[in-house]
Structure formats: C-alpha cells, structure tokens
Amino acid sequence: MNSSLIQLLVLAGVAIFLILKLRSVLGTRDGFEKPPVPLEDVRPRVRRDFEVIDGGPDRDITDHAPDGSDSAKALAAMKLAEPGFSVNTFLQGARGAYEMILMSFERGDIDAIRPFLDDEIEAAFVQVINAREEQGLTVSANFIGLREMSLVEAEFDRDSKYAQITVRYVAELTSAVRNKAGEIVEGSEKEIKRQRDVWTYGRTMGASDPNWQLIATGE
To answer: Hey, which bits of 77-181 come out as E strands?
Structure first.
C-alpha cells in the first residue's frame, strides 16, 4: 500500500469522526424547516384597550361638584392657591371633625374643639353649654354613625385666598338630657334619632395652619 492511499484513508477517517461528533452535538434535521423568524416578529405585542386622555376633568373635584359649576371652579382655584389641597382628603377630615365637634359639644368639653371653631361659633357653643350647667342639666350622647355626607357648596376669594366649603351631614345618634336628680327630661339613651346638619368650614389657603374652622351651622 503506497503512501498516497494511506493518507487518503486517514483523511476519510478524520472526516467520518467529525461528522459523528457534529451530529451528537447539534442533532439531526429531517424534512422541511421554516426559515428563522426575524427578532422583531417574536417580540410580544402590547394591546392597548384604553385611551389616555390628557387635560380631562379633575375627578377629585367632579366627584363632588358638577364640572363647570361655581363650586367646581372655586375648588380648582383652591388647588391653584395650595397645590397640596385635595377635596377627598378635606371630606375625610370633615367626617371626623363632625363627630368630634358634635360629641364634645354634647359633653360640654369646649376646650377639646376650640382650635376648630371660629370666634362666633365658639361663643355660641359656650353660651349653650353655660346655660345647661346653670340649669343643672347634663347630656349623655352616643354617636352611631353617618348615614350621608355630601359637599353642598364651595366658595373662594382670590384676593384674600379665603376658602369656604359647606357640607351636609345626616347622622344617627342617641342623646338624653338629665336634670340634677338624674332623671331624663329630654331624649332617650336607647332610641336612635337621625340628625341633619349643614356646616360650613373656612380656611385661608396656603396658610401654615392646616386646620379648617367651623364658621357656620344650620339644618
């Protein structure tokens, strides 16, 4: 066997070894194969089922006052004067303030609510509380809860930046008035009564004091 034939056999053996090695790593491919899919075609496509509307109505305002109404305009002006102001946050505070002020008044504890009353309302509350004490009357009351609460009206003075917001309440509570002998002369400790109030709060927007004050009451 000459040297040329030996070299040919060696090369053939090397070729067979390489083919077997490639098949063990890559596998085999049989039949028709689809061409490779471009990268951009396999990326997930996001379907937009909504439309973004820029410059739409402020739901924080329109949820409580008709869009374009005087109250809505006043609330918008309050937000311009004090960007951190929120109608929803105000109403949450007004909900808690109503129970706190009402129950403190019934108990005759004016000191607890003095920061939340303007001078005229404070004077009126003190007058009633003093009259009860002079007659020897005491009140026992229990706040059951609010049935309704809504924003009635909003006003804003752009010059003074003074804001007023009126809120209507419908609450349920028990209230009994006792005389010096401890006898109930008005109301009941068991009978739940429904009470309706319309309160107006006022505050200068942008002021360092965040508290709103009760400036008017009605039914």
So the answer is: 138-157, 162-178
